[in-house]
Specification:
By secondary structure, this protein is of the alpha+beta class. The protein is built from six helices and eight strands. The protein has an eight-stranded antiparallel barrel with strand order 1-3-2-8-5-7-6-4.
């Protein structure tokens, strides 16, 4: 199936999602904040968040790699890093119920963004699109994203399209000043004719949609 254009370099992002045991969430967050610098010494951490709304006891973090050989080298180095294995992996594994990972590319029309300031909240939206890839739904999806950007109430951080994992999945990360600011902006957007028209066009290709309000951890570069 045609996937359409994407960026010309080999850079990709690994999205790792952990379901943490409910009674162990506080312990898990403390462990991450204390020792995750050991992991980030091996490759670039984009962001690390925990779910506040839309899911419970869930953590998601994103890693950037130059190519697949780079990831292999990093994984091998981590397996041999005694500090990382002893101080984080060994105590963390009993706290986690389930792990899931995906490999995704930034869509070619999106640059990875940064929030204008620290202290806001992030919205993580996952779209399951119809099979066919961006060659089928890319233009309509981009138009819907741009329509929301043009309202000015939210900041786009990144749009990721899966390469490994459930295909035709798109993750969109937004930044907002606060949950209330986001709610007010959404209400205004729903009354904007440009947004309504773009969304109506894009949902022809949509299978399902899910979103989370996520909070960055202290160790997260994106705060």
């Amino acid at each position: 199936l045609a996937t359409g254009p994407r960026q010309n370099n080999g850079i990709f992002y690994e999205i790792r999602t952990y379901d943490v045991k409910p009674s162990k969430m506080k312990e898990f967050v403390e462990l991450v904040n204390k020792y995750f610098h050991l992991r980030a010494a091996h490759s670039e951490l984009v962001g690390f968040w925990t779910a506040e709304l839309g899911a419970m006891n869930k953590a998601v973090h994103v890693w950037k790699y130059d190519n697949f050989a780079h990831r292999t080298a990093v994984r091998n180095a981590l397996a041999n890093d005694k500090d990382w294995q002893g101080k984080f992996i060994s105590p963390a594994l009993p706290l986690i119920e389930k792990q899931h990972n995906e490999v995704a590319y930034l869509v070619p029309w999106c640059q990875l963004g940064k929030p204008p300031k620290e202290g806001g909240v992030y919205e993580w939206v996952t779209f399951q699109m119809k099979p066919g890839g961006p060659a089928l739904w890319g233009e309509a999806f981009q138009a819907a994203i741009n329509a929301h950007i043009n309202t000015g109430y939210t900041k786009l951080i990144g749009v990721f399209h899966t390469e490994y994992g459930l295909l035709n999945t798109v993750h969109v990360i937004w930044w907002n000043e606060s949950p209330d600011h986001r709610a007010a902006g959404r209400h205004s957007a729903h009354e904007d004719a440009r947004v309504v028209a773009a969304v109506r066009d894009s949902v022809r290709f949509l299978e399902s949609q899910q979103n989370m309000l996520v909070i960055p951890l202290a160790c997260s570069p994106l705060k």
